[in-house]
Amino acid sequence: MILACPHCHGLNRVPNERLADKPVCGRCKSTLFAGAPLELTEANFDAHALKSELPLVVDFWASWCGPCQSFAPVFAAAAAEFEPQFRFGKLDTEAQRALAARFAIRSIPTVMIIQGGKVIAQQAGALPKQAFAQWLKQFA
């Protein structure tokens, strides 16, 4: 499986059976799974959404959004629980307007699962922890 490093965004080849063995990046030597969402920007988005083979769960959010703020701990907990099945990333729609427009984000929070550059699932609105975990398990 090809994985983008959450630190340097370099691409790494890791056998599927070794994903749970705490693999490290061949370039920067950092762990490939931090158990926390990474910040997605124009600079690193394509490495994780297009080039990496691991499904990317994206939380489209904004700092002024109350439901986004209440969903943030749920999303962070899911990252700790579901990595390495998924990569988790947060995209600030105010700071990354072009990316938000690229995915036609109309309401926030919106969560998408992207694999191979294609959206395979989308959920608008904040979910409680159990409901979010159940939604993710459909695509694991």
Q: Summed up, what is this model?
A:
With 140 residues, the chain is of the alpha/beta class. It has helices at 45-51, 66-82, 97-102, 129-137, and strands at residues 2-4, 11-13, 38-39, 56-61, 87-92, 110-115, 118-124. A hairpin with a 6-residue loop joins strand 1 (2-4) and strand 2.
Tell me what the structure shows.
Keywords: Disulfide bond, Electron transport, Metal-binding, Redox-active center, Transport. Belongs to the thioredoxin family. Pfam families: Thioredoxin (PF00085), Zn_ribbon_Thio2 (PF21352). The protein has about 140 residues and is an alpha/beta fold. The chain has one domain (about 35-135): Glutaredoxin. The chain has helices at about 45-50, 65-80, 95-100, 130-135; strands at about 1-5, 10-15, 40, 55-60, 85-90, 110-115, 120-125. A 5-stranded mixed β-sheet has the order 3-5-4-6-7. β4, α2 (about 65-80) and β5 form a beta-alpha-beta unit.
Order of helices and strands: EEEHEHEHEEH
Structural class: alpha/beta
CATH topology: Glutaredoxin
Strand order of the largest sheet: 3-5-4-6-7
Task: Please describe the biggest sheet, giving its number of strands, its sense, and whether it closes into a barrel.
Answer: 5 strands, mixed
Amount of beta strand: 15-25%
Based on DSSP secondary structure assignment, what is the total number of beta strands? Answer: 7
CATH superfamily: Glutaredoxin
- What is the gyration radius calculated from CA atoms? 14 Å
CATH architecture: 3-Layer(aba) Sandwich
Helix content: 25-40%
H/I helix tally: 4
**What's the CATH class label?**
Alpha Beta
Domain Thioredoxin: 36-140
Protein name: Thioredoxin
Pfam families: Thioredoxin, Zn_ribbon_Thio2
Keywords: Disulfide bond, Electron transport, Metal-binding, Redox-active center, Transport
